[in-house]
Amino acid sequence: MAGAFVQPSLMRYALGSLQPDRSAFLVAFLSRLHVQLTQELLSREETLSPLGAVLERHEPQRHVDICSQLDSYDRDWSWLQQVAATVTEMATAARPLTLIDCEHTPGEAGSCMVLLHDPAVAAAIRVNDTVTAGVALLRAPNAELMVMPRLFRKVCSNGAVLDLGNGIEDDVAPWAVGDAVRACLGVDANERVFARLRAAAATAADPDDLLARATLATPSDDVAAEWRAGHDRSVFGAINAATGLAHAERDPRRRLELERDAERLLAAAESRAEEMACRRSLVSSRPRHAIVSLP
Known about the structure:
alpha+beta, 11 helices
């Protein structure tokens, strides 16, 4: 069945001195190939392990820096140069930024996407379940550049687009890209998001109630089915269900929009918690009338 193998049409690059993380690529690679990859592996007899052989065939050891491949008049050249300079400035031995992906498709209808995460800005939401700060930069076809904070969950490589609450806007002018990247990777802002996720992991939720409150990009029935299949009834479980479904989406712009469901679910759960707290406060503040027996 080797002939059934379909090579993914990815144009992946390095960004400055950063090479794409091979483990993150492998997860995306597997999710895109599904059954075809299994068929390919079963038919191969190579000295290397079958999985390693397939990976080597489609993922080179070293990628070319994207900035060296674009002309200075290319619409993506300026902001990519700024991101590369910012990443080089921020990356140190104590803060080794990781390039998850850097894809570029040339032409009028082309696009460009860069995904980064910072392993030094991380938190364990649960035991052995760590998320790290990250940033997604996307210039979709016929669209302006968008920069958004995107958390990276290590155990499954899912991404979650969450509001850091520091005034970051999606649409960013090319000259302000460096500042936007720094803001998305800021320690204080991400610590607040980590605290929200820890609370979500400790909060049980009813799927019907939560999904009725949240307006999602992913069909609610799909999220409900994935959530129930995971046996985690917390709000964090709902977020992981939604981002897991987003992970399989091949279109970058659509995938990031689906990953925004993480914020939508978290905000809906927090709104409900505030509503319940307000109700309890009203009940406790009501005057208690004493019953007096008349002689």
